[in-house]
Amino acid sequence: MFYIGIDIAKKNHEASIIDSSGKSLSKSISFSNTIKGLEKFRDFLDYFNL
């Protein structure tokens, strides 16, 4: 099981992913509140097959 944390802001968001033991699986990513930014977040999720 994985957990995704997202810090929501007006212009930019920050997301990170951990496993069930609390181990971080990658550095967090920053993405803008735009279609292009959401595509970046989707690619981040796709990398982990989520």
Q: How would you briefly describe this protein structure?
A:
With 50 residues, this protein is α+β, with helices and mostly antiparallel strands. The protein has one helix at residues 35-47, and strands spanning 2-7, 12-19, 29-32. A hairpin with a 4-residue loop joins β1 (2-7) and β2.
Tell me the overall shape. Answer: globular
Q: What is the gyration radius calculated from CA atoms?
A: 11 Å
Give the tally of β-strands.
3
Distance N to C terminus: 10 Å
Widest sheet, order of strands: 1-2-3
Q: How large is the share of residues in beta strands?
A: 35-45%
Low-confidence stretches: none
Chain-averaged pLDDT: 96
How many DSSP helices? Answer: 1
Structural class: alpha+beta
What string gives the helices and strands in order? EEEH
**Helicity range of the residues?**
25-40%
Number of domains: 1
The profile of the biggest β sheet is: 3 strands, antiparallel
Domain Transposase IS110-like N-terminal: 4-42
GO molecular function: DNA binding; transposase activity
Pfam families: DEDD_Tnp_IS110
Protein name: IS110 family transposase
Question: What is the element layout, followed by pairings?
Answer:
Elements: E1 2-7, E2 12-19, E3 29-32, H1 35-47
Antiparallel strand pairs: 1-2, 2-3
Keywords, please?
36% strand, 26% helix, 50 residues, three-stranded antiparallel sheet, alpha+beta, Transp_IS110-like_N, 1 helix, transposase activity
Give an account of the 3D structure.
The protein has 50 residues and is an alpha+beta fold. It has one domain. The chain is 26% helix and 36% strand. The protein has one helix and three strands; from the N terminus they run βββα. It has one helix at residues 35-47; strands at 2-7, 12-19, 29-32. The protein has a three-stranded antiparallel β-sheet with strand order 1-2-3, covered by helices on one side. The longest helix has 13 residues, at 35-47.
